[in-house]
Amino acid sequence: MSTPLSDCIRIVNKLLIDALFPIRCLSCQKEGFWLCEECRKEIKLLDFQVCPVCEKIITEKGKLCISCQKEGASDITAMVSAVPYDNPTVKKLAHAYKYRFLPDISEPLTYLLSKSILQNDFPIPDFICPVPLHPKRLRWRGFNQSLLLSEKISENLVPFMKIEVLDILERTKYNPPQMSLKNYQERLQNVKNIFAIKKDSGQTKIKNKTILIIDDIATTGATLEECAKVLKSAGAKKVFAAVIARQSWKR
Ligand SMILES: [Zn+2]
Ligand SMILES: [Zn+2]
Question: Ligand 1 mean position to 34 CA, how many Å?
Fold first, then answer.
């Protein structure tokens, strides 16, 4: 519970941390921002999107290509990546956000992600759904990076309207991080059938609804695919996905 004393301690702690580790633009080192205005303007959003499954064909707004559609290869209708995976500034931001435990970096990342979602004309979803962390990893990191991005995006997509965030997925298994696995097949196996809908989480709410899954970095896309599969089998009508960047394996 937040009390005046605990608020005070938190503020003092933050001042101390800020004094020891001043906030600097991760790109140009200017003090006061994680990403200064000039460097933010330098980051160019991807002006094309590819089929989320084969990654070989440029498709309109990140939809599935015709042949992947025919094969029924995905539960994701369309997926956008905001920036190229090798953008050095975004790489630093995404890494510091997740591994230096800096939740404040969600702000510039949200800016990029929201802009990309709007630029690609995604339908306004009924719900936004984060990729869940295993409770063990959540305790270690202190926050779920995907949930935090989802919450910020839920307030940024439509003016004066907040889209509900439904944190209804859970990991049923503690698996190694995808980034730690170098092999594509291993990554696919690593996340296979590890997601489920939380019990008593209002599952009926998603019936026939459009869901947008948010994540920071997609490695193979397998995590998002598994999440989409669970949401679809629980009755969701359409599932879209948006990530800051996606590592490419197939192109
Ligand atoms: Zn800068
Ligand atoms: Zn395809």
Answer: 8
Q: How far apart are CA 110 and CA 198, in angstroms?
A: 26
| For residue 131, pLDDT beyond 90 | yes
Q: CA–CA separation, 187 vs 190, rounded Å?
A: 5
C-alpha 54 – ligand 2 centre gap (Å): 4
Mean pLDDT of the 138-159 span: 92
Percentage of residues of the chain with pLDDT beyond 90: 67
Q: The domain 46-246 is classified under which CATH number: 3.40.50.300, 3.60.20.10, 3.40.50.2020, 3.60.15.10? A: 3.40.50.2020
Q: Would you list the domain boundaries of the chain?
A: 1-42, 46-246
Query: Cα–Cα distance between 159 and 148 in angstroms, integer?
Result: 19
Q: How far is the CA of 96 from the centre of ligand 1 (A)?
A: 15
* Nearest CA-CA partner of 225 in 237, 241, 236: 241
pLDDT above 90: residue 204: no
Grouping H, G, I as helix, E, B as strand and the rest as coil, residue 149 is helix
